[in-house]
Amino acid sequence: MMILMIGFSFSFLLLSISLPYSLSSSPTYDKAFHIDCGGSTQSTDKFNTTWLADEFFSAGATGLVSEPLRFQNLHEKTVRFFPISSGKKNCYTVPNLPIGSRFYIRTFTVYDNYDGKSHSPSFEVSVEGTLVFSWHSPWPEDISRSGAYSDLIAFISDGEADICFYSIATDPPVIASLELVQIDAAAYDAASIGNSSILVNYGRLTSGSGQWGPGFSNDTDLFFRSWQSDADFRSENSVGIKSVSAVKKVINTDRSPNFFPEKLYSTAVVAKGKGGLEYELQVDAKMDYLLWFHFAEIDVSVNRAGKRVFDIVVNEINVTRIDIYKEVGGFAAYDWHYVVKNLSDTILSVKFVPVVGSPLICGVENYAIVPADLKTIPDQVIAMRSLKESLKVPDRMGWNGDPCAPTSWDAWEGVTCHTNKGESALVVSQIDLGSQGLKGYISEEISLLSNLVSLNLSSNTLGGTLPLGLGQKSLVKLDLSSNKFSGSIPESLTSSKLQLVLLNDNSLEGQVPEEIYSIGVHGGAIDLSGNKGLCGVPSLPDCPLFWKNGGLSKNGKIAIGISCLIFVCLLSLLIYICCIRRGRNDYDFGLPHELTSLAAKRNRYHRQKSLMTLEMESQHAKGFIPSYSSN
């Protein structure tokens, strides 16, 4: 694990002694945040960079440097600090970032006796759960009064960047500004370096000019990098150094994926002495470093290949031979990089040894390749953040950022973590928050803590029902005693490997699952006392026949089902007797209305026919109707 000792190794810092700090160009990509830590209003500096009022922080308080006139910009004068009452771990969590993107992240840190205690604090800084900076008291006087910049390049996988501060002893961490700028995903040989490493700046040097870049001059850098003069990093062996400047435009600059600015290649230094040119870069041992070299043949006298040839020697190892003109011709940018593996010293030596002519260099960058620390499994991060809200965990406990990372820090207060079986991530194994004044409830997301072995929330004033998700197979110890939990004991607890269950002094009710009670029978410990509504096991009252766990028991539901079935059968029988049987009798002894009407019509017809026949016979007898007979 890397620890940057500010008091001894701070060559990666860009000192701000008299130059104003601002940003003067727009980023190439969509997302950029410039946060004035401690600032209460949005502001715009003289380079038209908009600084956001302080936001995205977890806690803390604001302060003002003791000598504000020393600083020319508002965002340099205000600070946010994190007293121990805010917890040992506090974070800026910047949301809504593109998932799977790379960001250039820069901080400006200053003390300037803002608290009147004349004691610069000791603290550490992590990015995405990986320790990157360490500040140890006392700071060098110029850094303490004037401040310093630290920057790095990190991969953001989940769309949310965590920049966290961890108090050493009881010192309050402090920060003046925070910037995040999206850069090209392929920058700085990302394909080889990978997304599982953070590039921490240990020196970004420009040759032949003074400090420049966003925050220090009007010169632009699309990645917002600032460049400092190489003069302070040359060794005593560098003699006959001469600065040269380009007399015409240098091509092949500001190109994807690194977008190195043209100004970087418009100046250079040439070593006229026999010893060549040598840099001594302060580093931390036992780490890998990425060296990025910048060249451009801007000397008009070198007009063909072979006129300027030199070797690059890193820690006495000849790593390559350079002929700039042969590679790209004149007035064209050329870059070459090299990785130093497992450096054993705290000085990284870089020499440019002449072969033909004099060595020339435009700039050098040195980045520590910091392996990303293990992080907590995302689902368990979700669960822990949900518990933070539901349990109303106080700020003083420092539940911010990743619950378990960095591994060199303590996990969240009351939380114990370990690596998973594949040693690829961190998992939460224990939560111990007894007697912490918690007043909320247990979130259902606790079911996501699939590696939880022990849970102690005793002696708080938590309420609500026990969540169904509280039944991890890994759970061995459960202490929820002396709270205000209500409802029944969930059946899900029976699937756990519980050996200790303390649910006493709550307001639980209903039947106790036999598997839970059997824990005490099989050598474990269980305490259910102080719950007037629990029943169904020895030492507790019997449960009502048809009532269990605050509702109908299985037998009660069966009884109600049978009763409903009997009722339906009786009702059906009654309907049969009253309706169907009665309909059949009506058909046997009484004709329907339609049949009665038809019969009446037939009777009337027959009567009329009979009357007509009688009348005709009567008239015939009287001679009114002639009679026809055949002769």
From TrEMBL:
Membrane protein topology class: Single-pass membrane protein
Gene Ontology cellular component terms for the protein in this record: cell leading edge; cell trailing edge; membrane
Top-rank lineage group of the source organism: Eukaryota
Keywords recorded for this protein, A-Z: Membrane, Signal, Transmembrane, Transmembrane helix
Record-linked Pfam families: LRR_1 (PF00560), Malectin_like (PF12819)
InterPro entries: Leu-rich_rpt, LRR_dom_sf, Malectin-like_Carb-bd_dom
Coiled-coil stretches noted in the UniProt entry, renumbered to this chain: none
All copies of domain Malectin-like, residue ranges: 35-368
Primary location group: membrane
Transmembrane stretches, start-end: 558-579
Protein's UniProt name: Malectin-like domain-containing protein
